[in-house]
Design brief:
The structure holds 2 protein chains of 2 kinds.
Chain A: E1 4-14, H1 54-65, E2 73-74, E3 77-80, E4 90-93, E5 103-109, E6 112-125, E7 129-132, E8 139-142, E9 149-155, H2 162-179, E10 191-200, E11 210-215, H3 218-237, E12 245-250, E13 255-261, E14 271-272, E15 279-280, H4 283-292, H5 297-308, H6 312-318, H7 322-334, H8 340-358, H9 369-380, H10 386-397, H11 403-410, H12 418-431, H13 433-440, H14 446-457, H15 464-476
Parallel strand pairs in A: 11-12
Antiparallel strand pairs in A: 1-9, 1-10, 2-15, 3-4, 3-14, 5-6, 6-9, 7-8, 10-11, 12-13
Chain B: H1 7-16, H2 21-39, E1 42-45, H3 47-63, E2 74-77, H4 104-111, E3 116-120, H5 154-161, E4 167-172, H6 178-184, E5 187-190, E6 210-215, H7 218-228, E7 258-262, H8 272-287, E8 291-295, H9 300-318, H10 337-348, H11 351-364, H12 370-390, E9 396-400, H13 416-420, H14 427-432, E10 436-444, E11 447-454, H15 460-473
Parallel strand pairs in B: 2-3, 2-4, 7-8, 7-9
Antiparallel strand pairs in B: 1-3, 4-6, 5-6, 5-10, 9-11, 10-11
Helix pairs in contact in B: 2-3, 5-6, 7-15, 9-11, 9-12
Classes of the chains: A alpha+beta, B alpha/beta.
Chain lengths: 477, 485
Amino acid sequence: MSWEVVIGLEIHAQLTTKSKIFSGASIAYGAAPNSQACAVDLGMPGMLPVVNHAVIGKGIALGLALNAELGKKQVFDRKNYFYPDLPKGYQTTQMDYPIVGKGYLDIEIDGETKRIGVTRAHLEEDAGKSNHGIVPGMTGIDLNRAGTPLLEIVSEPDLSSAQEAVAYARKMHELVTFLGICDGNMQEGSFRVDSNVSVRRPGEPLGTRAELKNINSFRFIEKAIEFEIERQIDLIESGGKVVQETRLYDSETNTTRSMRTKEEANDYRYFPCPDLLPVRITDEDIEAVRATMPELPGAKRARYVAELGLSEYDAGVLTSSRAMAEYFEALLEHTGGKDAKVCANWITSDLAGALNKAGLDIADSPISEQMLAGMINRIQDDTISGKIAKQVFDAMWKGEGSADEIIEAKGLKQITDTGAIEAMVDEVLANNPSQVEAYKGGQEKMMGYFVGQVMKASGGQANPGQVNKLLKEKLSS
Amino acid sequence: MLHTLSVKQMSEKLHAGEISSVELTQHYLDRISQFDPELNAYVTVTPELALEMAREADERLKNGTAGVLTGIPVAHKDIFCTDGVKTTCSSKMLDNFIAPYDAHVVTLLKKAGMPILGKTNMDEFAMGSSSESSYYGPTKNPWDLNAVPGGSSGGAAAVVAANLAPMATGTDTGGSIRQPASFCGITGIKPTYGTVSRFGIIAYASSFDQAGPMSRSAEESAWMLNAMSEFDSRDSTCLDMERPDFAANLGDSLQGLKVGVPAEYFGEGLDPEVEKVVKDAIAEIEKLGATTVPVSLPNKDLAVPSYYVLAPAEASSNLSRYDGVRFGYRCENPTDLQDLYKRSRAEGFGAEVKRRIMVGAYALSAGYYDAYYLKAQRLRRMVRDDFTNAFEQCDVIMGPVAPTPAFNIGEKTDDPTSMYLADLYTIPVNLGGFPGMSVPAGFANGRPVGLHIVGPYFSEAKLLNIGHQFQQVTDWHKQTPAQYQ
């Protein structure tokens, strides 16, 4: 008998603000413990929260990108529970009036488009971190993260395989990073995916779900879900019952294990936070955000193919991140917009390869858009050949200067003086009488050999077009 | 004797150079040493801070940068965080807490140049109507050491009444400025919710808490309210608007003033002597040109039940931060995390605080939220609407502050419900967020009684002037218990 898999994702995206959602403390990652927690974050007596309005604009941007209803009136609620890394004894979140209501995100699965419902997305503050084991037998509390702004994005249980779940998570990741509302860094916990997984027989009501939490790569999310689906099916088929619980994924063993069951769940005693007034957003607020929204990746990809004539593959690589797309568009602009294909090639092959090898993000590329454009411009005005350009590229990567500086310093300028090229052609032909015989006898492939010899004689700097033309003239005479 | 002067007279003498702030401050510090042991009105006295600030005030008085309150000492309720000073909220939980920042009110009154004498005793976390729930023991009423001073700002009212400070700050969540002002025979005003920043005030029930001045006269309260209220972006519920000059109306005539007298405030449970004092005071105000109109507050009886769901609900959450982890009391040798939480809170909080945390947590719990919390919010709106409707027929409402004069220490400590009813006239005002004031109006059984004046939003200047005009023709506010004269 077949099984149907039902998956819903809860994604916590950390917002790219400078300061926390309710205080002025910095949210920069990696600072010394408790050095970025102010009196508000520590829950000190008499301290009060003030909404950082930057988070509202970021929430609106996501809502617009998901074609979602926007919460014109938002209410912050308190979710009450005790935990050492929760300084106030409650988390401030949005329960009944979230910033983003029902929307959707389209994903591509096996060449088909599937529409995944987004139930809601709400703003909330992150908790701190408990560090076990720094001091043996004790728990260290680091409240740097306490109060960091999050958007919790909740999907409908519309995903029916691990593959779909990951496609959705990747698409959401691409979206929030493109919008610039989240840096997407999964290792640092800026983008966290919790998966609710259940199985059922077709036509039956929803099965009991297990929640997989805090998995920090897409690959492991897929594996964890796959394992969990099998675990649940095996369990039910062998007469057991799935219990509602949170499970942790162990990437070493590729298994999931129980962390806590929902029977221990708290009664969170939600109620509206009396320290914060409801946030109201107007149509003008929404339009102001819309006006500054970047072109979204889907639209960008389509435009690259239709208007710039790029392949689907190149368009996909160039829109894989906002920084990549921005690099490409800047490069195109600095090269006069003449040849998108050439620009795309340099990015997707040489630059992407070098970055990948060095483990660098395009934002940290040692070759800026202006530098790469300077080199492409020299190819297009015949100063250098495409082959010489590779040398120039390598030198730029090593920090030896701009394309012009490198061409000058290394004397890489292409030889276009017809007299000089003619002298080299004559010399090659004179030194290779048997090959000339062969060519004249019908072996036209010898042309490649002559070109190679001339180029070699010129140190690669002769203009290949001129070399070809002169050789043909000389050999046919 | 310096302490028999009004703040106005003190200010004149300071500005004229006849006395110095150091002299005045030292005089109050001496009186505190002499009388506070029997009154127990201060939790902490800060002589060094007071004298240092007095010296700075004297400098300002000399160089012409002094205002009307510069050099006048003040006592802060121990709910206002005060930089470098122990701020306990009269709780064992915060017995070791030294605030590393000033409440906005403290900042503003420092700016005004008011030397801080110390921190006054109160009900623990402002939960109470008698100041008996303090970890540091009850404060006594200067008019009768067997009586409570009211609460929760009982220490503040007592220090003003006994001349252990010319002025004091208080907070009022359900009557905590007005009821002790009434019990101790001084003037106190709770402004419109949002007028004074709550930043640095240890929260009890956030949607009700509001700070205000406590002093002998309405005129003095007007000056102090001017000094302590200003928009503060650190409190999201603080009103972002220009504050009026609260002393600007102090000369206005009461001719034509329409005083609403709600029948519901003169019903069963009101001590007949208190009723007489209040009615006489209203008659006095009529003599100044006002007329009375009967108004109705039909939902008055819903106020106490509503308040005792909503305030504890907010408190149960506000007080979750006292968990023994980061600051405040921590139990000895916790065996694990649960033990740390349970014993730190069980040992650190007093009985009334624990009672309200439990009531509040219950009202918010799944399955009871609609029946308690949401219903109480509906009642809150009904009570507020009563006042809004009444203010269509009158300018202000007058009645008693409390059903009785000060009761005896220990009289109600075993009966929380009867203690809660001590606030049945003041709580409705907090539910609506309206401004309310108590002005001394006479005595019942030898203990002071206040007149309660309530107005529409932002009518503080009007209320203060009514108090001021009343105090031009009466001298209740000038009376002092014999031993503190």
